[in-house]
UniProtKB/TrEMBL annotation, chains A, B:
This is 2-methylaconitate cis-trans isomerase PrpF family protein. Keywords: Isomerase. It comes from Amycolatopsis minnesotensis. The keyword Membrane does not apply. PANTHER family: ACONITATE ISOMERASE-RELATED, DUF453 DOMAIN PROTEIN (AFU_ORTHOLOGUE AFUA_6G00360). GO terms for molecular function: isomerase activity.
């Protein structure tokens, strides 16, 4: 048994356990083994650990000072397995980035400066630069605030998140296949997707060609999802993320469907009118329907909106510098920062809250379970 | 924002947050408000708190020294709402009692005595006396162990749990209605239940009369459950737990179906033969199918087995002093302690593990959320 200090922070619609690098390195076990045992990943219920047994509540980030000029904090995101002893390191998580921004101010890693404090972050999984702009009224850290976001009833501290130079962080290109739209033949007809790399690599399929609208409930999209995962695999290979026939990571490409705005009912029962948003989006996360949308996927959709003829561009209402995504949890807005035609940033409004500070007791991996008589 | 110290302990198949009474009383907010805010109960996902968003992971207990002679510890169990700002105080939870036993030794409330240390507990919700017998090899507290139980892959410290004088703790009678079996008319035919009060008040329906077997998967029993909740309500009224037409607590009566042993597949894929257990049981918890069985329900089933002609007695294989329950998670054994015909105790083998010690940051209830622009 070893003790590991960690901080539980809600960032947007995720719960993330944040660890200072000095608290988890050199503990006589690999970082991966420490996370899996701490979260209780062996059980689907994560009943023997601090994990929350869903993809949005089984997340961690390891945080350190950055030695890079102009960067305050490095963080490494870990998607910790649920019912499987595996950690995915292949992608970033913007919600955890939001949590890291608040934590950096709380823990003194970054000193508050004025009414809002910018935390300059590097995500080490993808190399992405992200700024978190944390509300610090009166030049001080506050643990709680009044900011709310779609998908979370409880308020928190307002955190603006800007993905800097989000294009091509994995494949060096906005459109890894070189095309605005790629066609995938099906047994009947064809599916059309824009394969985009911004925030994270993402495959954004036209909903209509798949018999969907993009405005499904979480349950409806969940029912359709199993038959669509083959398309995700083919898109991953086509983007160069995997060899033909080889395995494609659970984390990337992000996968979803987009469609024209239409009236729908959000998960909390709110009626949302077609006029109130610009594009319908339903995303998957770890092969399950996402209850809202991941932030890196939001960046990908925003970037695809700048591409003439993309699946997003084809359906999205034209607007100036902002795109509003209709998700199951409600409408999420993204602000586009452009240098001429080039997308140099995507800004999102988020909230975060520090939930708990804990000493986690981590069982050693070498124990051999023995059944009770 | 207030800070509250708590300890997260797995007890059996539940995760429980345990609080010393001095850490949660007199904090400028009611205990109920503190728990609801700490757990993030406002959201169905409990995304803004330490709750796990399921009935087995949204539990707390408040612990104090007992002033009663022959009792070491008093604990009060709280079933904290998920997506609803309500705490149920109406029942005990044996799994949390298991956690409390381990915590009492860890925290020094009870000093280890020899290879096994008995923690004498009073559950204040029901008045029940329970002994937890905690493995303390070499006369010392150990944070981990090799004991496993059905429904949890991870091992923990062996804890034996004995419910003392479990009969009639709520209604003063083993059979509150006075009958071994009560009949409830349905639109077609009738349902038969044994209404028993031991461990907790429980309504144990004969599965067959409801078109079930008692050996359903969790999903199958979950599909049948909505149509059965009317029977639970009628049983609660018949036991005197509510006025006719009045509301029945979500917590009690415990509700389930029993049937003859038959081969079935447990949730983890293990095949279980009819010969390996004595009675099939499928229970509900907070209106959802229980993944295994609650311990107070286990006591109720064991007590019903001692009643000639009960729904359990009718199906259970006759055995001497032990009954093995076939649950979705596997086989759970209970040992009966009898004084002549009178049931004086029920003993269960459990395991527990201390997961984390935390300072939880609890938002104050008076904050008014304001939506972000």
């Amino acid at each position: 048994m070893i003790g590991v200090s960690g901080t539980l922070v809600r960032g947007g619609t995720s719960k993330c356990w944040l660890f200072d690098i000095t608290d988890v390195h050199g503990r006589g076990a690999s970082l991966e083994d420490v996370l899996l045992a701490a979260f209780g990943s062996q059980d689907h219920s994560q009943i023997d650990g601090v994990g929350g047994a869903t993809s949005t509540t089984s997340k961690a980030a390891i945080i350190s000072h950055s030695y890079e000029s102009g960067v305050d904090i490095d963080y490494t995101f870990a998607q910790v397995g649920v019912g499987v002893n595996e950690v995915e390191w292949g992608s970033n998580c913007g919600n955890c980035g939001t949590a890291v921004g608040l934590y950096a101010v709380q823990s003194g890693l970054v000193r508050p400066r004025g009414e809002q404090t910018t935390v300059r972050m590097r995500n080490t999984n993808t190399g992405s630069r992200i700024d978190a702009v944390v509300d610090t009224p009166g030049g001080r850290f506050t643990p709680s605030g009044n900011a709310t976001i779609p998908g979370v009833a409880s308020p928190g501290v307002a955190v603006g998140l800007e993905f800097l130079d989000p294009v091509g962080s994995t494949t060096d290109a906005l459109l890894p296949s070189g095309a605005a739209v790629d066609d995938f033949t099906l047994s009947e007809g064809a599916a059309h997707a824009t394969l985009v790399d911004a925030g994270a690599p993402a495959a954004l399929f036209d909903a209509e060609a798949l018999g969907l609208t993009g405005a499904e409930t979480v349950a409806e999209f969940g029912a359709a999802l199993p038959s669509l995962l083959g398309l995700r695999h083919r898109a991953g290979v086509h983007m160069g993320l995997a060899a033909p026939g080889g395995p494609v990571s659970h984390a990337v490409p992000k996968f979803g469907v987009v469609g024209a705005p239409r009236d729908y009912t959000a998960t909390d029962g709110t009626r949302i009118a077609a006029a109130d948003y610009d594009i319908s989006v339903r995303m998957a996360s770890m092969h399950a329907p996402h209850p809202a949308i991941g932030l890196t996927s939001t960046v990908a959709v925003a970037a695809a909106a700048t591409v003439q003829g993309s699946t997003v561009h084809a359906h999205a209402k034209a607007r100036d510098g902002e795109i509003r995504l209709g998700t199951p949890a409600g409408v999420v807005s993204a602000r586009l920062v452009l240098d001429g035609e080039r997308l140099t940033g995507v800004r999102l409004n988020r909230s975060a809250r520090v939930i708990a500070r804990a000493d986690i007791f981590v069982p050693r991996a070498e124990r051999v379970p023995v059944a009770l008589p």
